[in-house]
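Protocol step 4 of 5: obtain the predicted structure for the target chain.
Materials: sequence only (see below). No template structures provided, no constraints applied. The aim of this step is simply to have a reference model before the mutagenesis design in step 5. Sequence pasted as it appears in the construct record:
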Amino acid sequence: MSDSYVSRDPPAGIRALGPLGRIVALADGGRATSLDSARTSPYLARFGVAGQPDDGVATARIEIDGATLLVAAQDESFLRGSVGANHGRALQDLFLRAKRERPAAVLLLAASGGVRLHEANAAELSLARALSASLDARIAGIVVLALVVGDVFGGTSILACAADRTAMLEGTRLGLSGPKVIESVHGKWELDAERPADVEAVFGATARSALDRIADAADAVRGWIRMAIANAVPFADQVLKTQTLLGIPGPRSLPPFEMRDVLPDARPEDPAGWLWRSGEIVVTRPPGSAAFGAAFAHALDSALLSKILADSSKMRRDTIVVVEDSAGHEASRAAEMRFISRYLAHHAAVLALARSHGHRIVGLLAGVGHSAAFFVNALQAPELYALPHARVVAMEPTAIARVTGLDVANLIEDDLLLGQPVRHFASLGGVDAIVDAGEFSRRFGGETTH
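Step 4 output (structure tokens):
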């Protein structure tokens, strides 16, 4: 569907507007061409929730100073702007459209609580594909911008941080694990979700000093967009620059890692054992029972970037197997103060850089694929395989119980959207094949360079 909208007198600010109003307020002459089509979620009725035709995100084409932009604006009034399967697909389609149409930029006006719990497996898969598409657009030379116009948490915080440039309006909040999540895990002594000053100190625009901060004024936002487009740098250069900016010490100890039952000849590729090699196959170390935190991600990215740069100079192309098994992302005040969303977004960008250099990226879900850790790691691989006992934890059972009020034990084992056994994720198209360790080794253990 392609409808045109015109606003004669757009207001000075945009935060108080609805999603389409925000888009129109930024456009030359208040003119926007809608790119939306009917995409009401088919999954919400079972929970007694009425769907919305655009599934919580408006998309449009506008011009700013004569330059064409494709824009997506999330609607925080609909299920907190959560990303359902169709919402995520709309974002993915916008980035794919950008590669065809070559606009000056793609702009995400972000206002979202992250993956929609009601559609957990389908929603996580859809948002992961949108993240991959956004990085592919950047690789193709399309500038991707993100402006936080409302509170942004969960996977959407990673999508926003994966842009070429990210900014926040005054008064907004941005983080991976929200205040109530951290309080529920660690208690009020860690973070009191009822104290605005405490929350602002961790998640507010003033705390995110690495990002641009903009006044809630349409002219200010338009000026920021012009500046960001003019100062964009090539994707590879930005990835290397970000790796330096994010520099922190690696983890004090590494969890045990044994891949020889899958790739019998695998041996450490680097002294610390972040990468292992078996012929032309390079295997990444998973966190295992540990959390996928900023320090772990940064150290793994250092090893990957060293390999990518060295291989490029030698014209070598390997298959990189991204092994997935973790306790999920680190959820703590310290992780949020370190701005873990940015580290995880950067990790996805490093894997995208490897793809752009011609490496074949294959994911192996060998244990637990947990929330954002899975989202930025093996789920970013164009090919994903899983061992039969693997599980996908898109949402914690306690959160499912709180929102649905249903029998969690049955849901997490037998439900297509909320179930954790990998067969559910595979039935949604999230896994290329479920294989045993021997089959995976036969498929990849004897490969030659691609």
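Step 4 remarks: The mean pLDDT is 92. The first strand starts at residue 4 and ends at 6.
Proceed to step 5.
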